Amino acid sequence: MRVLVVEDESRMADLLAQGLREEGHAVDVARDGTDGLWMGTENEYDAIVLDVMLPGMDGFDVCRQLRAAGRWAPVIMVTARDAVEDRVRGLAAGADDYLVKPFSFAELAARVRSLVRRPSGSRPAVVEVGDLRLDPATHRVWRGDDEISLSPKELALLELLMRRAGEVVTRTAILEHVWDFAYDGLSNVADQYIAYLRKKVDRPFGRDDIETVRGAGYRLRAPA
Ligand code: CA
Q: Which of 8, 81, 158, 208 is the most buried (most CB within 10 A)?
């Protein structure tokens, strides 16, 4: 397996590279975001270990631009902060996994192994429900021929509803998938975002596809 490590702290970069080599991987190291983006675009990697805090272009930007360039190598984001917002941003930027410093090398090695086991470099498939179409790779959404502009969280919520079309999705499930357990006390955030979604996805098209299931949650109407 060929792995790219993007990390500016040389001690950390050397440690990661050495450890991954001992695991039998071929390892390239980029010392900043610009180099990381260039190497990730020019070469085929089976996994990319990407530090968030980088001089110049940060890890979120690197990941976003890799995806925009059509590079789908699995990305593990590494951050020093255990911030929910970072995790959400990382996933929205197209990262596949997330690791908080300090972590054990064994944990990183296990994550790399589990990521590269997936079909390599596959672009996530477009999700379709009726005339709604969502492309997780490019973060674009359409109703018929009309493109709809959504925020990252609105998009994540719609994707969850679409992947479970016809099923009731509980507020708890919404909070777990779109936000994090840390938002536990704020369950009305789910209702709020459902309202935003309806305003963009349903109402302008005279539709009522996002149903409220009283006492249970929400359901996206699936076409018969
Ligand atoms: Ca760093």
A: 158
Longest dimension (CA), the chain: 59
The C-alpha atoms of residue 216 and residue 208 are separated, in whole angstroms, by 18
For residue 55, the CA-to-ligand 1 centroid distance in Å is: 8
Q: 72 burial class (0-12, 13-18, 19+ CB within 10 angstroms)?
A: middle
Q: What is the pLDDT of residues 45-65, one digit of tens each?
A: 888 999 999 988 999 999 999
Q: Which two tokens stand for residue 61?
A: 């930007």
Taking the centre of ligand 1 as the mean of its atom positions, its distance from the CA of residue 137, in whole angstroms, is 26
Phi, psi of 17 (to 5 degrees): -60, -45
214 token code pair: 């009283």
Residue 8 CA to ligand 1 center (angstroms) comes to 5
What SS3 state is found at 144?
A: coil
Can you give the pTM of this predicted structure? 0.56
